[in-house]
Amino acid sequence: MKPDGKVVLLGDMNVGKTSLLHRYTERRFQDTISTVGGAFYLKQWGPYNISIWDTAGREQFHGLGSMYCRGAAAVILTYDVNNLQSLIELEDRFLALTDTASTDCIFAIVGNKVDLTNEYALLLETEEENRSEKLVTSCISTKVQKQVHLDDAVALYKKILKYKMLDEKDVPAAEKMCFETSAKTGYKVDYLFETIFDMVVPIILRQQAEGPLQTVDLTNCKSAKRTKSGCCA
Amino acid sequence: MATGEPGSPTREGMALPQEQAGLCPTDTGGDELSTGPEEQEELLAPQSNGPVRPADGQGDAQEEPSDKELSDSASTDNALEDSSEFGRPLGVGACEPGGPLAPPTHRDEDVTAASWRARRKHIFVLSEAGKPIYSRYGNEEALSSTMGVMMALVSFIQSGDNAIRSIYSDDRKLVFVQQGPLVLVSVSRTLQSEQQLRQELLYVYYQILSMLTQVSITRIFERKKNYDLRRLLAGSEKILDRLLNLVESDPGFLLGAVRCLPLPASLRDALGTLLQKAITPNLVFSILVARSQLVTAVQERAVIEECRLEPTDLHLLLNLIGASSAFQAGEIWTPICLPRFNPDGYFYAYISYLDAECTVCLVLLSTDKESFYAVSDCKKRVEEAMRTQGSLQVLSGGLQSPSYGVGQVGVPDLRHFLYKPLDIPENYRQLPQFTSPELEGPYCSEEEQHRLFDLYHYLHSRIHSTSRPLRLIYHVAEKETLLAWVTSKFELYTCFSPLVTKAGAINVLTKLLRWIKKEEDRLFIRYPPKYSTTPNPGKGAKGGRPDGAENGFFAGL
Q: Is the predicted pLDDT of residue B199 greater than 90, yes or no?
């Protein structure tokens, strides 16, 4: 049985892709080791089966990136808010992998590890107004200055739209598609996945209306097969 | 290069300690270099007393000039190598190993501490340019000058058209292995022979290949001699750490054989049949494992004709799977290389646990990278059939007692044994196997287990000695008596209580052999099953070269 819709997590290594997914599916944070290849999860969302591909950030696994992304309805591009390079890598290395995604694929940009920043306490404060003063101050002392701000993510989102030649009016607004999360504390992790799943459902419906396989996919398959037998002979 | 002024601070990583430079006459005499304990100490602790180390030799700022020097000198035969080309400074990218996610490990060990030096066995991996790639204990970056000295030794001997193999000191052996652009070094206080240590280093090398393939590594270093391979291996340290622990505790590595889960032959055959049925084109191997012990493995018929699944490849594969606990909930699809089968090609591995406790694992290897959904479907069929059969419950339930105790053999004085049959019919030589009981008292502590395995290693090295091989050894050790025996039919290592007599031990052996004979259907895979998944065999599977093109993604480096 093939799943109805596909969501792919992409991003440089050590930004916490596996941890995000683990927080969402297992409800806890676990120190994981570097992901090998890709891992596939199925999530029941209403009447639909949504598959989630957790991929390895290490570059030797890029060969499979386009296979993971083929026909994806949503791509979650993940970076580490304390590491500017991880945001740059999204554009440099990972964006090209999404070329095989569905044409109406939605993009989300997620800055993970906000718990390590000094802004985290403030974020929590705005979330829950009545948070005690003491906790806030104690948090600040141990945290570091955040390197990547939400504006940078929004800028990347707009670049992606340009790259995909999409009109800003036809896609969800940048502010809605840029998230900051913490897999360690669970901050906004459920919100991230659930927002995306809700957005994926209309795409699933459209894909199902268009028939089981798009022409693009078929030709892709064929050309891939031909090269393979050629090199094995 | 070896005669470079040792005092110059710019040559810090490369310059030889004077004592070592004084060794030049020895190396022309033979390829084995013996040095006294002082030199050994020198190599282990250049930070503390290396005569040439500048005070700030380990700072990040020093990294680049040092690399440049190393790269230049390592390529004396290739003076054209553009050392100014090394691009990315180390600080770039999120690719540094061990971020906040990584739990504290041996990586954090203080490499100047006495406890670090007292470790039983150190393993180092470096590139030909002297760049650190891996160290079993301590941060490899902090060890860059030590690794520099190692590379200096290697290239110094190399410049005399020779190759360094080992250094013996009073209590340690240093073994060097060079494989392509990688240098692997073992510094060991164990009783293992040089040959065995060399074999272990090869396991480490093969594990690296299983993730990167030989052709990629060669290509990367051809393009850039001072490439930092940790960029590609980041996060894999745990896989190598786990491998090195396994090598010391699992006799399968020593014997070059796999251990099977003891099972009634009928159940094993039923599971084999099940795997034989759940196939899809381009499937090459189906492997069912329960808690790292093999249940059964099915191989594509055309593949075995040319090659077979090597125990080494299986060990490395299972180690890799065992190391990634983060995946136990999902299904994994990953390119993986079986280096003994073909060091240059990737297979695509489907890995999934079949039970909630993650004891039973199914591994399916395909040559088609697009076949995830087809292979995943095979797994569903296997899983369903196993549930209807009830065998899944038997497997996960049967693991409460994962193997068997030596008591079942029913002979007194016998504490432990390793048995590897050699008289197997050709059609099941496909997979060398061995059997051994669970370790019981007095071998419960890690220390005692190490002691026992040291003894096994010693016996193994005597039996397999290249200069004077033995067929039978009766060895009285301090706390036990051991007997090793090799015939054309089997290889056997036994451990007895210390009070046994030679006649008594031989007598016990007869009983043990009779017991194994009786149990062999349960202990071994007698007739490894096969299947034909591809209508046009030999094409999809030939040489396990699914796609050389796949390595093309290194083009951008």
A: yes
- Give the Cα separation of B337 and B335 in Å (integer): 7
Q: Which of residues 118-157 of A touch B (CB under 8 A)?
A: none
Which residues are CB-contacts of B556 (< 8 A; sequence separation ≥ 6)? none
Residues A203/A204/A208/A210 CA torsion (nearest 10 deg) = 20
Give the mean pLDDT of B49-56.
Answer: 37
Would you say the CATH fold of B406-523 matches that of B258-402+529-548? yes
CB distance B39 to B27 below 8 Å: no
Cβ separation of A67 and B548 shorter than 8 Å?
A: no
Q: How many helices (H) and strands (E) does chain A have?
A: 9, 6
CA distance, residue B240 to nearest chain A CA (Å): 12
CA dist B212 to B222, B282, B427, Å? Answer: 15, 22, 32
DSSP letter for each residue of B173-242: EEEEEEETTEEEEEEE-SS--HHHHHHHHHHHHHHHHHHH-HHHHHHHHHH-TT--THHHHTT-HHHHHH
Please tell me if residue A31 touches chain B, with a CB cutoff of 8 Å. yes
Query: B546 — contact with chain A (CB < 8 Å)?
Result: yes
User: B48: closest CA among B160, B118, B145?
Assistant: B145
Q: For residue B305, how many other CB atoms are within 10 A of its CB?
A: 12
- CATH 3.30.450.30 holds for B258-402+529-548: yes
User: Residue A17, SS3?
Assistant: helix
Question: Looking at CA atoms only, how far is residue A22 from chain B in angstroms?
Answer: 8
**Residue A52 backbone phi and psi in degrees, to 5:** -120, 125
Question: What is the number of other CB atoms lying within 10 angstroms of the CB of residue A23?
Answer: 25
Work out the angle between the directed axes of helices B311-323 and B237-249 (0-180°, nearest 10): 130
Please state the domain extents for chain A. Answer: 5-232
> From CA B268, how far away is CA B519, in angstroms rounded?
14
Using CB atoms, pick whichever of A39, A83, A89 lies closest to residue B327: A39
**What is the DSSP code (8-state) at residue B274?**
H
Q: Which fold has domain B406-523?
A: Beta-Lactamase (3.30.450)
B358 touches chain A (CB under 8 A): no
**Any idea where the domains of chain B sit in the sequence?**
9-81+98-236, 258-402+529-548, 406-523
Q: Do A116 and B370 touch (CB under 8 A)?
A: no
Pairwise CA distance, residues B180 & B422, whole Å: 33
**Residues A15-33: tens digit of each pLDDT:** 999 899 989 988 888 777 7
- Interface predicted TM-score (ipTM) of this complex, two decimals: 0.79
**Torsion angles phi and psi, residue B74, rounded to 5:** -70, -20
Alpha-carbon span A110 to A121, nearest angstrom:
19
Q: What is the pLDDT of residues B93-107, one digit of tens each?
A: 333 333 344 445 677
Inter-residue contact B280 to B298 (CB < 8 Å): no
**Which CATH number applies to A5-232: 3.40.50.300, 3.30.310.10, 3.40.190.10, 3.40.50.1000?**
3.40.50.300
Task: Tell if the CB–CB gap between B549 and A26 is shorter than 8 Å.
Answer: no
B202-253 tens-digit pLDDT: 999 999 999 999 999 999 999 999 899 988 887 788 899 999 999 988 999 9
As a whole number of angstroms, the distance between CA A178 and CA A77 comes to 10
Report CA B188 to chain centroid distance, whole Å.
16
| Contact residues on chain A for B99, CB-CB shorter than 8 A | 14, 80
B351 alpha-carbon distance from chain centroid: 20
Are residues A86 and B93, on separate chains, in Cβ contact within 8 Å? yes
**Confidence (pLDDT) at A127:** 64
User: Cβ contact (<8 Å) for A62 and B553?
Assistant: yes
- Structure tokens of B266? 């009928």
Residue A69 structure tokens: 């992304």
Report whether B450 contacts B245 (CB < 8 A).
no
